[in-house]
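[job 4417] fold queue: 2 targets
>>> target A
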Amino acid sequence: MITFLPSANFDECARVLDDKRLGGQRTEAWSILNWLRNPEQYRNFVRAGYCTMWCGFEPALVKYLNAILREWDRRGKNSDLLKAGDPGRGLDEVEGQEVAMPPWMGMEALHSYHRSALMAKNPEHYGQFGWAESGE
């Protein structure tokens, strides 16, 4: 379970992901968001690192998930179950409203680690971006 963050820009993160990873991010980010919103029900999950990193920054995770969903839709993929900005699912955002970002957002070491992990998963796809990371 991971939210891939090869950069600090959520739209760019979504744009560079290959289809397999992008599809997975819809499920994983949505799951993390639900667990954080229902901590009593998902006590064990909420303690995991992939949740604690977003704890207190759920609006930022909503922005990330919406970027993923918009890109999924832009690629013509089926997104009937989960749509960007869906207020019924708590995915609505106030246009232009600044959202507090986690303190690790923008830390080059984190983004580099994620680029390296992505390169290891699909070097053919991620090689096109000219990243310094080799994935080894």
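>>> target B
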Amino acid sequence: MRQIFKLALVISFVVLPVKALQEKVINGNVFRTGTYEDVIDDFKKRVGPREVITFIGYSGRGYEREDKMLKMAEKFLKTKDPKGTVVNIGVTPEGIGAIYPLAKEMGFETFGIVSTQASEYLDGVSNVDNPYLVEDKAWGGYIDASKKELTPTSKAMVDVSNMMIAYGAGDVGLAELEQGIANGVKVKAYLFDENHQKSTAKALKSGKPAPKIFYLPAFKKFVIKLNSSLRKTDSIKKRRNSRNELTRSKSVSGF
């Protein structure tokens, strides 16, 4: 009986080894691959107390006005200290990934999270100091939109972020933004057109008619709703500050 007790005690203290991230070097970039849990754990350890700014946007289809997108990104990043901030995007260099070289030039350490579905498309990756591949059966977005359940990749993108900034978005990006707001992440979103030529060519190649609009209608609704909410919040803050100032003024004057 005593031996059985000792055996049970030993078993109770057995700790299963943590599965380490697998590393693979592609064109000089060390990609770390693992589960959602492994990736965000390693990501957060490397970031430490620094703020994580995640940029959301178009990838392969690019931007009709990439110059405008980059100017907006540069203007925003100038408000941040590279010593206390890191930039996170979706690893690949196309579209929103054009912010990577900009961020590097400005002195930011760069991170990236993408699904293992992108494993065959990583040869052109550059300017990403810490690229991660999340084990995922999908590219991202919702597993079940009715339950607002994200795929492992999209969940990781949201859960490492302190702020998310979207310059346009497809279905995957929109899902991440929605859950970012639900999780209390600060979100800013701006409407941008996809590259017209690339979007038209892709549609025609798949047998669809040429698009008449070059953004996701649901994202436009999201931007309008978000900006309306932010205006209301700012208005409430201004009224509250005004009341507080009036109260202080009365207190000082003795009335």
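[job 4417] complete. Note on B: The chain has one domain: 21-250.
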